[in-house]
């Protein structure tokens, strides 16, 4: 208690003079801090406005690039050029005109021509003497002009220029776009400039292009600051403008040609500080009265309030709110207790975070596994349907009295083959499809596939393909690699709504231990797809490979594209890496394993051969009635003696009472007994019986029963001729 009493007495004795000194210092420091804050705010607002202006300039640049590639302009087709520019002018009313001049600065077409009954040709002023024209011709690059009054319109404009080239890559002239400064003034007036503030845009000579407020009083006049965009960029100045208002002004340049200034009025910015200073003076005057109650305040401050914080924190932690902390500073006994409480809360919060992450990972793995099982089941049922369709079409095609129906049946069978490929793609994202890997020349595959990619992404996206000389062969399924490449190209297109560059790069790479996270050491062919789109935020980037995760609008994306790419590459023994920066674009790199063997010669398409025949007894087990019927019909027509069973239980009963030369069974069957169990029981009852199992997807069942390689297997959908050939081979060779 003596320690507490001593503190209370010291507080009473020291309350007056030190309090006044500290308060005065705080006022000075607060004003200085506020001034820095206002400077930072002015500079930040200037940079924000400059960034928006930069987007406008970039949009003009992209528009001029597009115009420079118009065939009518490159060929100097006056009528076609006038028509095109007039249409562009109507689409973009913020531009006063579009003009195309030759290297002598003489205009040969413009947007001033209106097409009604016949073109009305205006006499156009030349670009002679315009600095932007000379600079564009000299540098061959996009050029930003300065404040000007249009020679054709007499209106205030800011002109932009870009050279164009003819088909022989010779400079043919310059495309000029004149941006209305009235439109620019209206645009910055919509920025929500605070009261007393001012936003202005000047050219490289310090001439005002647009300003808010009072645009009409300033446009075309030289402002007292901001003469050189490069020198004034990023600076802040305290100045009085020609309207007599004192402001703190921040400057931010747009390239080397334009300067944005944003000024915050000092009166408005420091009003709160002035009011606070007045209140503080009153507070200091009344501080003598406060001395009378310091003793009571001291008791509350050092005893009652700390205990209240400890009790409140303990109650919050009891309810699971581990973010609550006790703020008791110093070296007192209560401060040490509070420090111990805070350390305990940190430990509990860390443990809770670890448990939460563990639960999230468990739920995520369950979700992905469930999606994989779902697609496996869908693929199995879909392949049953395809097998029935293919078999019926083969029977139609084999007849002699169908005529032209044979041609249509063959086309339908090719459609069935495409359906089987769709099933493989459905299985791809769950990494459960059966791959058909072979040595693939990625350069040749991309070259042959480039036309399809170009059609898919559209003309607004420019495609660049680069590849190392002597690129290794990679060991992948070529059809799935094409599908993966197309998915990446479509995602890149969606990320570049205004167009951009899609770059496909192939290179040999040897990955060492730990160089690429998650990638095993070895030799790979790296296929990178890079875009210049909007980029992906970090929180979304962590989830892009999740099945069904998409940021697109409802009906515009399934969320399976990237997960299919990931599943295919990982199942092929490779690795997928993705990097993205907001506003700059995204790059996806596929690390495809290097092939260790030479590619096989391409096999030519062989016409269907007559199905082999036989006379053996065959037991067919299939739960799909349509597939069972067509299979038994085909085998009966081929001379076999066929018995049918629709379940595993029925098949086992028939094997115990009858003799068979061969068992043909689906793997996935209802009622608990699957094809693997039937085959094993058949072998136990008859050592000489032959077995052929069929399934559209059997990965899980084979793995669960440890039956991989135990019995011959034919994948659904299969052709009847293929089935007959396999049966004949198994019966003949065992």
Automatic annotation (TrEMBL):
PROSITE patterns: HAMP (PS50885), HIS_KIN (PS50109), RESPONSE_REGULATORY (PS50110). Residues 301-353 form the HAMP domain. The modification 4-aspartylphosphate is found at residue 666. It is found in: Membrane. It catalyses: ATP + protein L-histidine = ADP + protein N-phospho-L-histidine. The chain crosses the membrane at residues 281-299. Residues 617-731 form the Response regulatory domain. Keywords: Kinase, Membrane, Phosphoprotein, Transferase, Transmembrane, Transmembrane helix. PANTHER family: HISTIDINE KINASE (PTHR43065:SF49), SENSOR HISTIDINE KINASE (PTHR43065). This is histidine kinase. It comes from Bradyrhizobium centrolobii.
């Amino acid at each position: 208690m003596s320690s507490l009493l001593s503190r209370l007495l010291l507080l009473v004795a020291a309350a007056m003079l030190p309090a006044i000194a500290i308060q005065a210092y705080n006022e000075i420091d607060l004003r200085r801090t506020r001034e820095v804050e206002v400077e930072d705010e002015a500079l930040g607002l200037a940079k924000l406005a400059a960034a928006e202006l930069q987007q406008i300039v970039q949009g003009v640049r992209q528009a001029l690039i597009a115009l420079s590639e118009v065939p009518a302009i490159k060929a100097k087709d006056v009528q076609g050029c006038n028509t095109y520019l007039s249409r562009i002018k109507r689409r973009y009313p913020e531009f006063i005109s579009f003009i195309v001049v030759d290297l002598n600065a003489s205009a040969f077409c413009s947007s001033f021509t209106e097409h009604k009954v016949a073109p009305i040709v205006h006499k156009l002023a030349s670009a002679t003497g315009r600095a932007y024209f000379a600079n564009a011709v000299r540098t061959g690059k996009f050029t930003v002009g300065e404040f000007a009054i249009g020679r054709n319109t007499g209106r205030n404009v800011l002109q932009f220029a870009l050279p164009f080239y003819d088909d022989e890559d010779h400079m043919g002239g310059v495309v000029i776009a004149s941006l209305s400064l009235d439109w620019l003034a209206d645009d910055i007036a919509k920025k929500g400039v605070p009261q007393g503030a001012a936003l202005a845009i000047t050219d490289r000579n310090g001439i005002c292009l647009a300003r808010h407020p009072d645009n009409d009083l300033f446009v075309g006049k030289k402002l007292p600051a901001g003469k050189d965009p490069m020198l004034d960029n990023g600076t802040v100045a305290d100045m009085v403008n020609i309207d007599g208002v004192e402001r703190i002004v921040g400057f931010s340049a747009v390239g080397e040609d334009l300067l944005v200034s944003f000024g915050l009025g000092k009166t408005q910015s420091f009003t709160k500080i002035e009011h606070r200073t007045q209140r503080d003076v009153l507070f200091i005057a009344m501080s003598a009265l406060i001395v009378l109650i310091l003793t009571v305040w001291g008791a509350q401050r050092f005893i009652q309030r700390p205990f209240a914080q400890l009790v409140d924190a303990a109650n919050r932690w009891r309810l699971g709110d581990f973010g609550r902390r006790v703020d008791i500073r110093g070296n007192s006994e209560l401060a040490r207790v509070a420090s111990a409480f805070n350390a305990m809360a940190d430990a509990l919060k860390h443990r809770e975070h670890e448990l939460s992450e563990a639960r999230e990972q468990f739920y995520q793995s369950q979700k992905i596994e469930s999606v994989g099982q779902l697609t496996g089941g869908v693929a199995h049922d879909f392949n049953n349907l395809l097998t029935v369709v293919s078999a019926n079409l083969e029977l139609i095609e084999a007849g002699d009295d169908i005529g032209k129906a044979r041609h249509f049946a063959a086309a339908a069978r090719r459609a069935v083959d495409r359906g089987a490929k769709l099933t493989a793609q459905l299985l791809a994202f769950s990494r459960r499809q059966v791959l058909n890997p072979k040595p693939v020349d990625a350069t040749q595959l991309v070259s042959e596939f480039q036309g399809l990619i170009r059609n898919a992404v559209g003309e607004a996206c420019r495609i660049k393909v680069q590849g190392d000389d002597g690129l290794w062969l990679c060991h992948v399924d070529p059809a799935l690699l094409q599908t993966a490449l197309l998915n990446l190209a479509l995602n890149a297109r969606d990320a570049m709504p205004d167009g951009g560059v899609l770059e496909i790069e192939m290179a040999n790479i040897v990955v060492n231990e730990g160089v690429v996270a998650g990638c095993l050491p070895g030799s790979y062919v790296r296929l990178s797809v890079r875009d210049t789109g909007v980029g992906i935020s970090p929180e979304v980037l962590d989830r892009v490979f999740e099945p069904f995760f998409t940021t697109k609008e409802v009906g515009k994306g399934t969320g399976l594209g990237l997960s299919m790419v990931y599943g295919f590459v990982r199942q092929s023994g490779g690795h997928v890496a993705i990097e993205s920066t907001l506003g700059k674009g995204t790059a996806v790199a596929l690390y495809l394993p290097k092939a260790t063997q030479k590619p096989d010669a391409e096999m030519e398409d062989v016409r269907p051969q007559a199905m082999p025949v036989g006379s053996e007894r065959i037991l067919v087990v299939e739960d799909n009635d349509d597939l069972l019927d067509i299979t038994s019909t085909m085998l009966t027509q081929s001379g076999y003696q066929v018995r049918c069973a629709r379940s595993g239980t029925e098949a086992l009963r028939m094997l115990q009472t009858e003799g068979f030369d061969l068992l043909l069974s689906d793997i996935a069957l209802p009622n608990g007994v699957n094809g693997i169990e039937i085959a094993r029981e058949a072998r136990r009852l008859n050592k000489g019986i032959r077995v052929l199992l069929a399934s559209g997807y059997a990965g899980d069942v084979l793995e669960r029963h440890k039956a991989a390689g135990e019995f011959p297997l034919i994948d659904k959908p299969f052709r009847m001729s293929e089935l007959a050939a396999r049966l004949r081979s198994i019966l003949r060779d065992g």
